[in-house]
Amino acid sequence: MTCTSCQMAIALLLMATAPVVGQEPVFMVKKCDEPKVSIGTLPAAGGTVYYRLGPDGKPDTASVGVTQVTGLSVAGFRSVVVRQLHSCRFEVSKSRPELPVGVVQSFTTKGSTISFGSATGMSQLPTVLDPAAPPLPPDSFPLQPDDARLEERPRRISCPNPLPARPLPRAEMEQWFRDNMGTIMAEVRVNADGKPDRRVRVISSDNSSATRSLVNLLLNCKFVPVRYFGVPVPGLTMERMGIVGGPPSP
Predict the structure, then answer these.
(1) For the whole model, what pTM was predicted?
(2) Three-class SS of residue 48?
(3) What confidence score (pLDDT) does residue 205 get?
């Protein structure tokens, strides 16, 4: 089967800039885990944020404000940065009296990659942009795959193993593959919680006997939902699902 859980690729651009007298302190990234709230597929975008960094190296994500951004809305960019920073820790010295401290940090996004460097201390609070989002009419949902209002597109992150739960005799296994092997292309509605809606529209199938089992497989996958101005909303996505190969050789 060609369904693999795709994890967010995080590129940490760790700049080896050491603070010197007269400059603001620089805080290096210590570690970043996979975000607990997954991030979808992103456009090419970039910007800078301000937030408070605590004495334990944890970013105060509630204090994140966007100071400048291109390629995403203010709210959409802030949502991505908050989810990423929530999983990160920074190198801090226990001897620093200025902590917690305000810092600025730059981020760029493209596809499934988020890139960022060190955080730099800032003595004055910068002007942050208004993250307010225009309301969507109730009949906007689900958002179409080509809707220009889509900023964060859905991403499939996990699917169940389609193979039988218990070993089958070879003859039965060969029959199972004849009945289930194939590929479909389908339009799937992903709800705001990342779960597929039961209404799946099959666009194409190369094995009619396998169509139903492949649709059921899709229905049990987990997705990162569509986001509009940083808020999860129902949206449509085109998905290819297939079972390939065959029973192991005797």
Answers:
(1) 0.85
(2) strand
(3) 97
